[in-house]
Design brief:
Layout (H helix, E strand, L loop, with lengths): L1 H7 L15 E6 L5 E5 L7 E4 L6 E5 L2 H7 L3 H6 L2 H15 L14 H14 L3 H10 L8 H11 L3 H9 L1
Length: 169
């Protein structure tokens, strides 16, 4: 993880390398204080999103390697998943109550939008190509659909909210 952190310092000012507590290691913070963090102490721990306003918070990757694959979309692209996480959490609440869920998926929740982000990153961040080359060199492929990958992580960590709540208390 340290080699990755050194490389990321040239990519974005969002990088943080501190711990929120003994169980949460912060990876990124956006301009309003929302965090992407590791929930645990090893590379197999889930990566979570913690909104600065308290909700939503959810898992965004099953492990650190999956999270790294999302960085093809830059840290901005990773932080853009918040509306999708809100959608998934609302859908889950309705399904638990066996209620009908009619809310539309949020705009920007598609691969074409994230591809636009990639094009913007190529021009805005001088280190973007270095990041991509490092990911490829380390055998980390760009996900075919980051939304399917996030959905899989969301579904694979069904009790993540309880775990986050217990760690944050």
């Amino acid at each position: 993880m340290k080699q990755y952190m050194i490389l990321m310092k040239g990519f974005t000012g969002l990088l943080r390398t501190d711990k929120l507590n003994d169980e949460i290691e912060v990876l990124f913070e956006d301009g309003v204080g929302s965090l992407i963090a590791c929930l645990g102490k090893n590379d197999d721990s889930p990566i979570i999103y913690l909104n600065s306003e308290g909700s939503p918070y959810a898992v965004v990757a099953n492990n650190f390697r999956e999270f790294l694959s999302l960085l093809y979309y830059g840290t901005y692209g990773v932080l853009e998943i918040e509306p999708y996480l809100s959608y998934l959490k609302a859908k889950k609440r309705f399904e638990k109550r066996n209620a009908e869920f009619n809310r539309l998926m949020p705009s920007g929740s598609d691969v074409e939008y994230l591809n636009e982000i990639i094009e913007r990153l190529k021009s805005e961040y001088k280190s973007y190509d270095d990041i991509v080359n490092w990911l490829k060199k380390n055998g980390i492929d760009r996900p075919v659909s980051p939304f399917k990958q996030i959905l899989n992580a969301f579904q694979s960590n069904d009790n993540i909210e309880d775990r986050i709540n217990s760690v944050l208390e």
